[in-house]
Amino acid sequence: MIPLQQVVQTSPAPVSLPEREDGIKKARKNSIGSLDGVRAVAALLVVMLHLNEYAGVPWNLNQNPLATAMAVFGRTGVILFFVLSGFLLFLSYARSMLFQETWPSTRTFYLRRIFRIWPGYYVSLAVMLLWYERQYLQPAYWKRLALFLTFFMDSSPQTWQKLNGPFWTLAVEWQFYLLLPLIALCFSLIVRRYTSSPRQRLRAVLLCCGGLVLLSLAMRGFGVYCQRNPNWTWLIPRQWLNVLLFFLFGMQGKYLEVFAIGMMIGACYTYAQHPVFGVAFKARLLRLSDWLWKIGIVVLFCLALWQAQASTSNDVNLASFSGLPWLNPLTPYYAWLGEPIAGVGYGLCILAILFGSPALRWFFELPALRWIGLVSYSLYIWNQKLLDLFYLRVFPHLPHVGGILLKDAAMWVFVFTIMLPLCFLFYQLIEKPGIRLGNLVIARRSVVVQALQTRLHIHRSS
């Protein structure tokens, strides 16, 4: 999925090129290293899911329900990416609301997201169109192509999980980016009006995030109901309702409730890092970190069982899976509550990593894991297509000795020896230049703005 750079202060003062490079290096040093490892875990979960879909699993689905549940649990790697996005991108807004710091520049926020996401996405889209799906270049497919170009490929059955399966999540991410400054502004208006101290502001921010969770769950429930009842309508004609669902729900929801969970963690983390107001709060999180980790793991484990059972109706690989019949009564509710609960489980685990023991952070700060986190964007985009290529070109030539285990091992060897180096090359040639160009554009704009402000000040003084 999508690797996110740490949020940095906006509206910087004019700086020289060497100072600018020093600032970039300093930002990297101040990044939350353990979250690079968490991002790598999210990407590897998605790779594991796609790999198992190609190679299969060396056990009977019904006789080993726990193993089956773990094998398909990679789907929640997307949820982990969404939680991380909400956490990281809300940090600067949380600082502004909690401690009345300068409000982040909306233009800078959008520029940073554009130069981080667009180069990798549009280059990948162009390559895949020319390599795999040239029919999208024909006039009959132009409407579908327009949805890919405008990041609405998650809202139509003609484009959802088409061309490249992981693309639909990029649409969800991008729509969250567009909304976040507006959401944060609404939160700020509430927080500033009804609170006075940082502690009260934290409570208000958490309540606002909780309200966003409830609103998003209501939207998700409404969308799921309309999806299951295609002829039902309320107050307005169904065709108009379909237009609203296109923007508010799409094919599988917009996941604002999951992003909001990440935003809540970001607010707590920001408050806990304050050297004065956050001391007691941070100490409390440190004491609770072990329990947060245990509860988060239990939530995710139970969710894995529920997800496997709920997936049998729409997954050909699980069509015969019935190893958990006691979960059957809960199956209809997974589409509404399952993924938000996964967000809660992952959120608790992230809090535990941020405030837990050094041993726990050590694993997620391993250089190899952080390196995978660095290339996780390209790994997320390209893993399914590269595995598909391996499956079509290499699989038929593998010996039958060893069965699924041999093929499974061969695909993992391919992931670590071929796929990851290719993704690193993509990062170096496409993603990294885009990030640097974005930094230059933002820095130059800051110089221009500072110069205009200086001239205006001189003019007023004279």
Essential attributes:
globular, 16 helices, 72% helix, single chain, 462 residues, mainly alpha
Topology:
Blueprint: H1 17-29, H2 33-55, H3 65-71, H4 77-99, H5 106-131, H6 142-149, H7 167-194, H8 198-228, H9 238-248, H10 256-272, H11 279-310, H12 334-355, H13 358-364, H14 367-374, H15 376-393, H16 403-461
Walk me through what this model shows.
The protein has helices at 17-29, 33-55, 65-71, 77-99, 106-131, 142-149, 167-194, 198-228, 238-248, 256-272, 279-310, 334-355, 358-364, 367-374, 376-393, 403-461. The protein has 462 residues and is mainly alpha-helical. The chain has one domain (17-461). The model is unreliable at 1-30 (pLDDT under 50).
